């Protein structure tokens, strides 16, 4: 219930539409009720089943006054125009009433359309805004398929299960309340009995709805795993086919597909139970009301036969909204399972982007780590342990070591992607936490090992919308990418830069950093996956980029960092040694062994 109320808060910015929808819905129900209530008294007067009221009743605010006034109006029409003319007049009134009822029903749906679309738009917008502000650790803990499912399947489920039932959720209760009020004027005793029956039916359906919600959550989780396997299969299709592991990946997909089949079978069976179950319960309630109400009429306990017929006519109109509301209850339970999954994004802790912190435009001395350690949430062993090191402005540093030594984690700490579990990081003697993250990161340019590009133009991949042709051309020249970039001009470069070669993608990534012109360049070996020709071209671009910059480079090929001002040797999350290439080669056995092995290779 709390989650449903939270979801309805997304309606608050559109309260004008909600107000109009409620007004039109009330008018729809009122005209529907009038068309039914006026039928029995008119027919009773027309066929002489009740005496006509020919004197206007004195005004008083009571049920009797309004009923007598209505009888007086009908009696006057019959007396003045005759029964045949009165019947024609009455039929015309009924047509007008139904015209107004359906007009207001259409107007209610007319204002509902933008309300429905606004809610989904606002949800999707809030989710994406939140997503791009989440810390890197969130994406490490949650698989991509599950995140994509929340943006696609779960949002669609909310639109279908909740937004599409919004009309029912508002109109059906209005119908029920107004019809019950009308019935209450006819027989309070019988109405209370009907209300008790409806309450029992609602509680019974609610128990089934809870189990449907549980199945729905499980179904979305299975969908997320399926989407993840599909994404991995498309991304890794070359590996799958070159290693001939189609059967292995198919078996993995097939297991999840079977889970999907079985989970959704259970869910649909419970959902499809709602219609026949509610219909059976409704007919059962009608029969019980007929039995109970018939006894009241036969025993002369304050309810006439004609009023009982009118009561049953109104009650018959109460059943469809009650049935629709119970069906909507099933759908809402199913949709709330999706909304609770979406809340894991909307309520996830974001990166601290506060702008009320100090800004930093440049640094003049150093970036220093003091006793910095880092422990991944899912691990018992520290990825970094008691790191103490000062990176001085204008120097070129290289991080070397075996895989898992902590090199990439160290870069993540420096960039602020992760926060130290212990210790702190300082820039020019000030903790980096004192500065806004945006201004701090503006000092850096990142060249990752795997080129990360977007399916957009070269210009937008460089500038991210801050178009500056001269600046872009200078950046492309530094990245040794101007020639091929001019050939593709304003064409999208494909998903993950798929229309470019490996070398072109990496040179474009370097150009992107050059466009930003940061003071500090961080690199995860940008040439390790390239052939000799591409490596030479990329290395030229890197040399141009790093001129007059402070740089920290993760080096896999030690030959590329021999000329660094300082090489930092890392092992098992610790800094084991540091110095120039010659110093380390002469004094450190681990470093010497690494260099010799690569030389032999």
Structure description:
The chain is α/β, with parallel strands linked by helices and 601 residues long. It folds into two domains: 2-346, ABC transporter transmembrane region fold (Up-down Bundle), CATH 1.20.1560.10; 366-443 and 518-600, P-loop containing nucleotide triphosphate hydrolases (Rossmann fold, 3-Layer(aba) Sandwich). The protein has helices at 2-8, 15-37, 39-46, 63-81, 83-131, 136-141, 144-163, 166-186, 188-235, 237-242, 246-272, 274-298, 305-346, 407-415, 437-441, 458-463, 469-478, 482-488, 502-516, 532-545, 581-587, 589-600; strands at 366-374, 384-392, 396-400, 422-427, 430-431, 444-447, 520-524, 550-554, 566-571, 574-579. The strands form two sheets. Strands 6-7-8-3-9-10 form a six-stranded mixed sheet, sandwiched between helices. Strands 2-1-4-5 form a four-stranded antiparallel sheet, with helices on one face. The longest helix is centred in the first third of the chain and has 49 residues, at 83-131. The protein is elongated. The model has no long low-confidence stretch (mean pLDDT 79).
């Amino acid at each position: 219930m709390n989650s449903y109320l939270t979801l309805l808060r997304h309606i608050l910015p559109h309260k004008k539409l909600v107000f109009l929808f409620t007004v039109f819905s009330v008018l729809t129900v009122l005209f529907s009720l009038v068309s039914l209530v006026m039928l029995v008294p008119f027919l009773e007067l027309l066929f002489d089943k009740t005496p006509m009221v020919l004197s206007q009743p004195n005004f008083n605010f009571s049920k009797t006054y309004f009923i007598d006034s209505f009888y007086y109006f009908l009696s006057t029409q019959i007396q003045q125009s005759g029964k045949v003319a009165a019947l024609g007049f009455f039929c015309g009134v009924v047509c007008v009433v139904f015209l107004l009822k359906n007009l207001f029903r259409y107007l209610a749906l007319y204002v509902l359309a933008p309300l429905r679309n606004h809610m989904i738009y606002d949800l999707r917008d809030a989710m994406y805004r939140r997503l791009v502000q989440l810390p890197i650790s969130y994406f490490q803990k949650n698989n991509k398929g599950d995140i994509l499912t929340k943006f696609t399947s779960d949002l669609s489920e909310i639109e279908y299960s909740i937004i599409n039932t919004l009309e029912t959720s508002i109109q059906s209760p209005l119908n029920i309340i107004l019809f019950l009020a009308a019935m209450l004027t006819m027989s309070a005793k019988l109405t209370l009995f009907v209300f008790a029956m409806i309450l029992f039916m609602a509680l019974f359906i609610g128990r089934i709805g809870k189990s449907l919600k549980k199945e729905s959550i499980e179904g979305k989780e299975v969908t997320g795993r399926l989407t993840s396997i599909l994404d991995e299969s498309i991304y890794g299709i070359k590996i799958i086919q070159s290693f001939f592991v189609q059967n292995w990946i198919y078996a993995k997909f097939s297991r999840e597909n079977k889970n999907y089949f079985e989970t959704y079978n259970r869910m649909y069976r419970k959902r499809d139970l709602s219609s026949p179950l509610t219909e059976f319960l409704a007919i059962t309630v009608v029969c019980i009301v007929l039995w109970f109400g018939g006894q009241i009429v036969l025993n002369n306990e304050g309810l006439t036969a004609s009023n009982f017929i009118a009561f049953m006519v109104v009650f018959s109109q109460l059943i469809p909204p009650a049935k629709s509301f119970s069906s909507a209850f099933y759908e809402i339970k199913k949709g709330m399972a999706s909304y609770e999954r979406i809340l894991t994004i909307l309520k996830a802790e974001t990166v601290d982007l506060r702008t009320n912190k100090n800004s930093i435009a440049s640094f003049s001395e150093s970036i220093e780590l003091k006793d910095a350690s880092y422990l991944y949430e899912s691990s018992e062993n520290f990825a970094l342990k008691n790191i103490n090191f000062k990176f001085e402005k204008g120097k070129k540093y290289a991080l070397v070591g075996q895989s898992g030594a902590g090199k990439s984690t160290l870069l993540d700490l420096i960039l602020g992607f992760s926060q130290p579990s212990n210790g702190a990081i300082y820039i020019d003697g000030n903790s980096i936490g004192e500065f806004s993250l945006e201004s701090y990161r503006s000092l850096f340019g990142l060249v990752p090992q795997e080129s990360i590009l977007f399916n957009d133009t070269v210009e937008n991949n460089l500038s991210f919308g801050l178009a500056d042709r001269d600046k872009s051309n200078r950046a492309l020249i530094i990245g040794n990418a101007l020639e091929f970039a001019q050939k593709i001009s304003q064409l999208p470069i494909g998903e993950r830069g798929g229309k470019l070669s490996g070398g072109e993608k990496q040179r474009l990534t370097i150009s992107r950093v050059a466009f930003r012109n940061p003071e500090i360049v961080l690199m995860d070996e940008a040439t390790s996956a390239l052939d000799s020709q591409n490596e030479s071209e990329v290395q030229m671009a890197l040399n141009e980029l790093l001129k007059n910059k402070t740089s920290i480079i993760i080096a896999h090929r030690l030959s590329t960092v021999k000329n660094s001002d300082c090489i930092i040797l890392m092992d098992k999350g610790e800094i084991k040694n540091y110095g120039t290439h010659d110093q380390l080669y002469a004094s450190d056995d681990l470093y010497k062994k690494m260099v010799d092995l690569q030389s032999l290779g």
